[in-house]
Amino acid sequence: MIQHTVLAVTDTLPDAYQRVRSWTGQICASLETEDYVVQPAADISPPKWHLGHTTWFWETFVLVPHQPQYRIFHDDFSFVFNSYYESVGRRVLRTQRGNLSRPTVAEVYRYRAYVDEAMTRFLSTQELTPELRNLIELGLNHEQQHQELLITDIKYMLGHNPLFPEIEMPVNEHRMDQPTLPVKLPEGVYTIGHQTESGGFCFDNELGAHKVYLNGATLSGQLVTNADYLEFIDAGGYQQFQHWLSDGWAWVKANQIEAPLYWHRLDGQWHAYTFAGLQPVDPDLPVCHVSYYEADAYARWRGLRLPTEAEWEAAAVDAGGHHLAWGLRWEWTGSAYLPYPGFTTAEGAVGEYNGKFMSGQMVLRGASVATPEGHSRPTYRNFFQPDKRWQYTGIRLAVS
Amino acid sequence: MIQHTVLAVTDTLPDAYQRVRSWTGQICASLETEDYVVQPAADISPPKWHLGHTTWFWETFVLVPHQPQYRIFHDDFSFVFNSYYESVGRRVLRTQRGNLSRPTVAEVYRYRAYVDEAMTRFLSTQELTPELRNLIELGLNHEQQHQELLITDIKYMLGHNPLFPEIEMPVNEHRMDQPTLPVKLPEGVYTIGHQTESGGFCFDNELGAHKVYLNGATLSGQLVTNADYLEFIDAGGYQQFQHWLSDGWAWVKANQIEAPLYWHRLDGQWHAYTFAGLQPVDPDLPVCHVSYYEADAYARWRGLRLPTEAEWEAAAVDAGGHHLAWGLRWEWTGSAYLPYPGFTTAEGAVGEYNGKFMSGQMVLRGASVATPEGHSRPTYRNFFQPDKRWQYTGIRLAVS
Amino acid sequence: MIQHTVLAVTDTLPDAYQRVRSWTGQICASLETEDYVVQPAADISPPKWHLGHTTWFWETFVLVPHQPQYRIFHDDFSFVFNSYYESVGRRVLRTQRGNLSRPTVAEVYRYRAYVDEAMTRFLSTQELTPELRNLIELGLNHEQQHQELLITDIKYMLGHNPLFPEIEMPVNEHRMDQPTLPVKLPEGVYTIGHQTESGGFCFDNELGAHKVYLNGATLSGQLVTNADYLEFIDAGGYQQFQHWLSDGWAWVKANQIEAPLYWHRLDGQWHAYTFAGLQPVDPDLPVCHVSYYEADAYARWRGLRLPTEAEWEAAAVDAGGHHLAWGLRWEWTGSAYLPYPGFTTAEGAVGEYNGKFMSGQMVLRGASVATPEGHSRPTYRNFFQPDKRWQYTGIRLAVS
Amino acid sequence: MIQHTVLAVTDTLPDAYQRVRSWTGQICASLETEDYVVQPAADISPPKWHLGHTTWFWETFVLVPHQPQYRIFHDDFSFVFNSYYESVGRRVLRTQRGNLSRPTVAEVYRYRAYVDEAMTRFLSTQELTPELRNLIELGLNHEQQHQELLITDIKYMLGHNPLFPEIEMPVNEHRMDQPTLPVKLPEGVYTIGHQTESGGFCFDNELGAHKVYLNGATLSGQLVTNADYLEFIDAGGYQQFQHWLSDGWAWVKANQIEAPLYWHRLDGQWHAYTFAGLQPVDPDLPVCHVSYYEADAYARWRGLRLPTEAEWEAAAVDAGGHHLAWGLRWEWTGSAYLPYPGFTTAEGAVGEYNGKFMSGQMVLRGASVATPEGHSRPTYRNFFQPDKRWQYTGIRLAVS
C-alpha cells in the first residue's frame, strides 16, 4: 500500500529533507542544459525555475525568518523565483519565465547546494517547534508538488519539439494495475475530508472532515483505456457537439482538438509521445492527458457520468469490503474546486497556498505515475482548469 | 406571496400566452427605435433580437412541427434569430447581433404579430397533448427569461451611453422589503430540488429532488446594503489582494474595477445609473450589480462567506417556523453550477437548454426586481460566470 | 469634365454651404432609422455619427470661435461627435460609436437644422476674412469626404447583413467610361502637387508643387475589369504566395480572403452586393473593393506593376496630347503616403487634418463613382492602409 | 575607410567563407549555453537558431543542389531552421523558436562544423560558375546580416533580464566619430542605387541605379546625441501628441513608452543597458535604440525632419567636396521601403529575399557599430517596421 505521507515512519526531518530534495535532482538527471530553460506555454515553467523556486521557498519561509545568521544567496533571486505570492513582493510574470537565460543552470544548482547546506545545519542543530515542523512538512510537500510538475512540464516541452527527443525519466508511463470490481456506494451519509486525529500531513483544503449525503452510485473498478477512448474518437465524438459542454465545444473548435494531448496519427495509426519517444498507442493502458471537457464528453457519450469527489473518496477509502485501486492517473471528478465547510485560510503568504484558487477549476482525485512516493492519500484534492491536460489525467466512470 | 408559476390558477393557455407576450411589449414601450438595435458588449443582445428570438422559438418549436398549414414568416429569420442551438442550423454569431440594422423594428413587430395570431389560433383550436402543453409552458418561461434580459440589456446599453438617458421601465429599482430574522439551519439532512408531485413548472436543471447533508449554517435575514458595501470600498477592499480569489484579483486589475457596475463618483459622491438617470447611491438599498468575485471578496473581508445553494434553498422554503424573504436581488451562492444527481438532458434542441452550460458558472438563487411575475420559485437555479454583473445581483451572507 | 472644386463658378458661399449640406441628407434619404445606428466594423462609422460629426465641425471650428452670440446645441455632443482631434478634448472611442442609441436620429437632424440655421445667418451677414473663407471651404470639403464615407459605410453595413437589403442610393455603381489609349510618360523631370497660382481649393497634403524625376512608364488607358480579375482568381492567385507581399499573404491567410469584398459564389457563379442587392458580377465593369495587397498581387501576377502617384498625376494632367480618363475607382498607387517636400502642418486642431496619418498608408489617386461632384482633382491624395477595401477601389496597371 | 564588400581585395572565396563563418562564432564566444536558447519577443531569435539557420542556408541552397554526393546532416533540421521561405516547405513558426531546447547547442555546432567542412571542400575543389559565385556571395552577406541580428538579439535578451548580465561582445558601443560639416545638397537631379559597372556585391533591392530629383536639402553632419534627445524627454515630448504620427502616438500610449529602449531611470538618473551592464547614459554618444516614430517625433519637435533615402545616399557619396561620416547608427530615413524603378524578384526561394517585405516598413541607411566589417556601403537599404528599435538605430536631421 502507498505510504500516505512524505515522512516515512522511520524518517527524521533531516533525512526526509535530504530524500525529497535529492529526488528533484534525480528527475532532472538526464536533462541537457538547454532543457532547463524553455517555457513552451504559459502553464509550463522551465525546469530551472522549478529548481530555483522550490529553493527560494526554503530560503524565504524558513531560513530568513528563523535562522538569524543566514545570509541570502542573491538579492535578485526573490524577484526571479517568487511564483504567485502577492505578499512577498514583485515577481517575474509567469509568462516571462522562459525569457530568462540567467541565472544559469549551474548558478541555480549552486543556489540549491547553498540552501541545502544551510537547511541541513538548521534542521540538525535546532529543537524545532511544532509550528516549524509543520512549515517544513509543508515545504517538503510543496517541493513534491513541483516534482510532478517538473515531470509534466519536461514532457510538454519535449513532446512539443519536432524532434520528439527520448530521455531517461524515473516515471513508469506504461504501468498497469489489476482492475478491481466496481465499487457500489449505497445511498446515505458519508464522511469525507482529512481526519485530524489520524495524524499525517494534509493541505489546508483537505481539512474539515464533514458529512455528505450521497444519493447512491457505482464507480467503475477500472479506468477508461485507450481502446475504450478510441471508440469515442472513431465514432466521431470530437465532431459532434451533442456530447460536449458549451465551453468544451468552443475549446474543441478553437484549438482543433481531435485526440488526447501528445497523440499524432502517423500513417493511419495513432502514436503518443512518451519519454521513450513517439510510440504506438497501447490499447490496454488507461487513457492519459485528457481535459475535463474530454472526460465529461466521453462519459456522456457512454450515457454515464464522472464521479463526484465525495463519491470518489468514499469509494477509495472503504466501500463494503473493498475499495478502488487508484494511483495511475489523476481522475477528473464532476466536482468544482470549492471550500469545504469551515475552510479558512492561514495568515500571511502561506495562506495564499490553496484557497485563492477556488474558482473556475475542477477537482481531480487519486494520483498518477508521476506523483512522488509518499505524496498521495485518498483525501488529496488536486485541481486544474477544465481545459488543462498536460498532467497525467484520466477517466473513471460512474453511474447513479 | 409570489405566484410560483407563469400559469396563474385561473389562466387558460391562450390567456397565459397573451399575458406573457404582452409583457414583453410593455418592457419595450418607451424605447426609441434606435434603442432596439445596439449591442454594446458581447453579453448584451439588442432588444430587437430578443423580440425576434422569442418569436422564432414559437415558430420553430411549436408552429412548424405541430401546425401543418403554418407558413414561416421569412426564410432568413431562422439564421438571424437562432441563439445557440447547434441543432437548428447556422446562426449569426452572438457578437454580431448588434451589426444588423435589418430586419427593422417594425418588421420584427410584424413578425411577432404574425406568430401571435398563428399561436392564438393554434392554442384555441387544438386539444393539446401533455407534451405540447409542456413545450408551451417551456416557451412561456423562455420568454420570461428574455424579459429579464431585455431589462438588464437595455439598462446596460443606456447606462453606458454618455448621455445617461432616462426611460420609463416597469421595474421598481428602489424596492425595499422588510428584513427577516436570520435563518438558522441545524446540521442534518435536507431535501432540495423540484418535487414533481407538487406540480408546477420547473426547468430541467431543478428536477431530481434529492437529499443533501448540511453541516449547519446561519443565513442573514437581509441582503448586504449599499451602506455596508461602501465600508468595503472605503476600507480599500478593491486595492487589497488578500480578500480576492486569484481569478477575481486578475479581473479587478485587468478591468480597473473599483465599485459595482453603474457606479460613478461625481464630485466626491457615489452615483449609480438607474432608469431614472444618474442618482446618488441610496445607502439603504441592497447593493446591486456586483460580480461573484466581488460578493465573495466582500464576504471574506467580513470574515463570513456566501451560502451554498442547498443552504439557500433550505432557508428559503422553511426553516424552523420562518424563512428568508427574497426576490430583490439574484443572490450569488458559493456553489458552482453543476448537475443534480440523476440529471439528464432531453433529446433534440430543447435538450440544449441548460445542461451544456454546467461549466465555469456559479449559481444564483432567488429573483430580482426585474424578474417577471410568476417566474420565480425557491428551487430556481440561475447561473452566470463569476465576472458577470449586469443582472440585478446582490449579496447575502452566511456563517457556519 | 468634372468641376474640380466644391465652389462652382457661380456659387456664393451660402449657396455652396446649402448645396453640400443638402447632399448629405440626400445620401441618407432612403435609410431606415435602424440603418443610422449600426457599426459593423471598427473602420465603419454609423451614419448618425457622420451626420453629427460634420455638424459638430461647423459648430466647433466656425460658430463657437467666430459667432459671439452662438449657443451650443448640447453640452455633451462634443464628446459624442469629436472624431480624432486630440486637441479638442475627450471623445467616444472610435470602436464605441455603434454602441450609442442616443442621441436619436431625430435629435441629430434637429442638431443639423439648428447649426444650419446659425451657419446660414453667419454666412449671409458677415463680411468674411480670407482666413474664414478658407476655413469654410475646408469645412465643405470635410463634409464631402464624409459623404463618400457615408456611402461606403452604408454599403458595408447592408452588404454584411444576411438579408442583403436593397436601397436607393444616389450612386451609379454600374457606370462605365470609354477607355483611352495608354499614356506614355517619357523619362524626365515633371512637376506634381497643387499649383497655388492656379487657384481652387486643395488639402494641405497637396501643397508644395515640386519636381520629380520619372524614369519612364506607360500607364494603361483602362482599369482592370472584373473579367480580367476573374482570370487571377481562376488561376489560383489567392492560393499562391509568390504573387503576394509578405504582409499581404498573412492577411489573405488570416482572413481567408478569396475574392474582392462583397463577392459571394452562389451556385457556382460569382455575385457581388450592390445597392440593388446581390447581383451577378458584370465582367465589363472595373473591378472594385480590392485592397492594396490584392492590387499589387494582381499586377505582379500579370508581370506588371502599379503606377507611382507621381506617374499617375503626370499622366492624369497632360501627357503628349491626351491624358488618363479617371473617376470610376480610387486607384491604388505604389506610393506610400508621405509628406511632399516642404510640407508643414497648421497650428491647432486643423493641423491634425492630414499630416499625422503619414505612416503605414498607401496613396490612392483619382476619384470614384461615390465621390461628390466638385470634390476631385488630379492632385488629390487619398490614402488608406493596404488592407482596406470598403472604398470603391480599383486597379490601373503600369509598365516601365 | 570602410571596405564596402565582404570579399576583401585579397580574399579567395574559401578564405572569405572561413572568415565570415568564424566571426559568427566569435560573436557567441562568451555566451552561456542558456543564452543560446531564449526568445524573449517574437522579433528576437535565439542565438542557436541563427547559428542553425545560417548553416541551413548553405546546406539547402548550395550543397544540396550543387554537390551531388552531399548527405544532409539531419532530416528534420530543415523544418527547424527554415525562416520564412515559403517555397522551401514547412517551418517552425517564428514565435515558437524559443520553445525548442533541442537540437542542443552542441549539436548545432556539430552541424556547423559538418557543413563548414563540406563547404570548404566544395569551394576549394570546384571551378565555380559565376552564378555559384554570386550565390555564395549572397550567402556570406546573408550570414553577415544574421551576425548583426545575433548581436542585437543577444542584447535584447540580456537587457530584458532582471539581472542585467555583463558579457564580452566584439562591439564597441561607445564609439564616437568626428562630426563633419553639414552637407548641403543643391536642388537638381541625382543618381542613386547600385552602379553595376562599379562591381562589388549588392542586394537585389539596391539594383537599378536611377535618377531622382531632389528639391534641395541640408543634412546635419552629426547624429542626434543623448544630450540632445534628453531635452526632448525633459520638455515632455513623450506626453505631447502634437509631435507624433497618429500610429506613433498610439504606440506610445499602448506601450507606455517614455524613453529609448534599454533606458531606466534609477535614482533620478537615466541609465542604459549595454554589454557592460547598466551604465549612466553618456550625453555625448549618439542616441540609440529609437523607433522611427521617436525619430520622426524628435525631428518635428525640433522643427526639422528626417532625410529621405535619396538625400541620404546623395550626401553619403559625395556632395560638393565632402560627404557624411556614417556607420555608428542605422539612420532612420523618411522614406518607405518600396521598389526601385525596374525592380524584379529572382525566381525561386532566393527571390523571396527582399521584395516581399516592401510594405509597411521604413528605410534605414548607413550601418552601425554592430555591422560586420565589409558589410556596408552607401547604397545599402536596410528596413524595419516603424515601431522597431532593438537595432542600433539613430537619428540624423535634415532641413529643406
From TrEMBL, chains A, B, C, D:
Keywords: Iron, Oxidoreductase
Residue stretches spanning the membrane: none
Gene Ontology annotations of biological process type: ergothioneine biosynthetic process
Pathway per the UniProt entry: Amino-acid biosynthesis; ergothioneine biosynthesis
Sulfatase-modifying factor enzyme-like domain ranges (all copies): 183-326
Domain (DinB-like): residue spans on this chain: 17-149
InterPro entries: CTDL_fold, DinB-like, EgtB, Sulfatase_Mod_Factor_Kinase, SUMF_dom, SUMF_sf
PANTHER family membership: HERCYNINE OXYGENASE (PTHR23150:SF36), SULFATASE MODIFYING FACTOR 1, 2 (PTHR23150)
Protein name: Ergothioneine biosynthesis protein EgtB
Organism: Larkinella knui
